[in-house]
Amino acid sequence: MWMEGICIGGWGSHVYARAHLATSSPTHPIKPALALAIGEYATNSLCPRGRPRRNNMSVRAASTAPDALRKGIAEFYDESSGVWEDIWGDHMHHGFYDPASDVSISDHRAAQIRMIDQSLAFASLSDEPNQKPKSIVDVGCGIGGSSRYLARKFGAKCKGITLSPVQAQRAQQLADAQGLNAQVSFQVADALNQPFPDGQFDLVWSMESGEHMPDKKKFVNELVRVAAPGGTIIIVTWCHRNLSPSEESLRPEEKNLLDRICRAFYLPEWCSTADYVSLLTSLSMEDVKSADWSDNVAPFWPAVIKSALTWKGITSLLTSGWKTIRGALVMPLMIQGYNKGLIKFAIITCRKPNTP
């Protein structure tokens, strides 16, 4: 999880009963029996659904209005981002690990950088001088970790957007302190209505923010709109499993588990990786491809748990506010979802055609 996207997934597991979590490991995940819901909360549910082999997507009515959802997301990150930064640093997303690795607390920041580099490699993005991106948008930028890393890596100009005023301000402070104020800028803006002209960015980057978008079709359309001809789009996000050809929807028990996560994390209804692929294909994007990196992020949970079992982790969480605590308490459900194969950590990339 993760920014306006997320990094919720990472932060949320910070607090869970010490006696239960201390025994988890990448090779011995927390058992579903331990992954109990810790409460019921209110939010919305909205997202395209459909069969993976058919472009048969529908939208379910939300129980919370879009304005209320945006407000909830903004307040969640206003409240929790400082806690995350204090414990985990400025990259608000999962790390990328070898599936069987034994994760220590000390290597998670390197794994978060590896997540960025692996995403760029998967998209076949070149850092050759005449091919590297010169303009980047970070959609759901959090406190700007990806923006600053990408700007330095490519020598590019980068604009980050988030719904959280606290995040935008902190992201700019960090950029200024690192001497990147001429390259990187941040603002409060809605990913579904980006304040940029058509075709502005060589790289459109969305790291763990898509899960917050109530209208996935509009989200993808905006990513495509602001991408320059020949530009690359990278989406890294939480999805539910792909549906089989005989399924119209997830099973009731699966919907129930995801709904409980949504209520705590200010998420709309989830969609599948296949849904994203279908949307991008329908817009005539080229080189559309996807991968399931769930195994590569699984070790992240034990690392987060270990970080929570410190005085700093516990006190930071307890002083952060109810929204942050509420998100933390449902993290066992995220682990349960991964263990059941219901939740997928997906990357989807494509290239915008050079000509219409």
From TrEMBL:
Residues 226-235 are annotated as: SAM motif III. Residues 199-207 are annotated as: SAM motif II. Signal peptide: none annotated. Pathway: Alkaloid biosynthesis. It comes from the Eukaryota. One of its GO terms (molecular function) is S-adenosylmethionine-dependent methyltransferase activity. Residues 137-235 form the Methyltransferase type domain. Homodimer. This is Methyltransferase type 11 domain-containing protein.
